[in-house]
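Quarterly update, task 2.4: zinc ion-bound model.
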Amino acid sequence: VSRPATPPTHVATLELLEGPPPAIDAGAEVRLVVRAACVHGCDLGAAPLVIEGDDADTVGRPTCRAEHAGICDAQIVLRAPAALGSASWTVRLAGHEPAGFPHECAPLRVETDVVPHRTSIAVWQVPSPLKGSAFSVRVGVECSARCRLGGHAARVLTDSGEWLGEGILAGDALPESDGLYEAEVSLVAPDQAGVFFRRVRFDGRGLGLPHEPAEATFSFRSLEPPECTVTVRVVPDGSTDRLDGIEVRLGPYRTETDERGVARIEVSKGRHELTAWRIDLDPASIPIDVTGDTELTLAAAPRRRIDADEGREWM
Ligand SMILES: [Zn+2]
Ligand SMILES: [Zn+2]
């Protein structure tokens, strides 16, 4: 007695050629390359792959590589979930009888760990305000996944975490930056002169995807209000015929000479170090005791060797 012929079942395999990294940013795209193959050399290109699991948002279809009979490599792009922790997807071969034969195929499981985005923060344009006066600093924040951060707040805190001010990041990233968003934060200097430290914090609260907070520290010097004017004439001996653009510092106060080599600095009374410097001059320095309006002359010698990089570092 003959029975109706049942086609034999083929065994197909799914192999992960390219998987996700062990940890990926929340909401980021994940690229997989899956190889489907039948030992009998069936063309599995017509058999779609089905993806199940966390936010299985797939882009792309299996595409058969013609040069390998019976092998079909598919590129699949998934989106990682927003929720942190482990994420997994299952890839199955769909369609029971590709190439006219039933295929048995074990599903492929793909796992990764979803992590929050890293953020980084920087502070610049920190002035030396007079004690008790208003000043501002500029804060920049960046996300590792280049999220749009505009409209979110960066806060300035004391050492102990007390809120002092905040700035709202601009709607658009700085031009030619890699997603750096900038804010201006208005602050008030303490009522004493001295050096103070502040914390700047971005916690990413209110962003759609989870972010690790970022924190930076900056310091600034608050100054006594100036009481006297010191007029400094810098006299470079030797070759130089340019007298302007010489940086003159008197303690924490600074300015530059005019074309006559003269700088006027408003300072508080007390003992200060007077320094004159330009890239082509050796730094000249003397201590002075300021008790009232003063005029003085400072000699400066040409520099023996000019090093532009070193010049930029000199503070
Ligand atoms: Zn087959
Ligand atoms: Zn982000």
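Highlight for this quarter: DSSP finds one helix and 23 strands in the chain.
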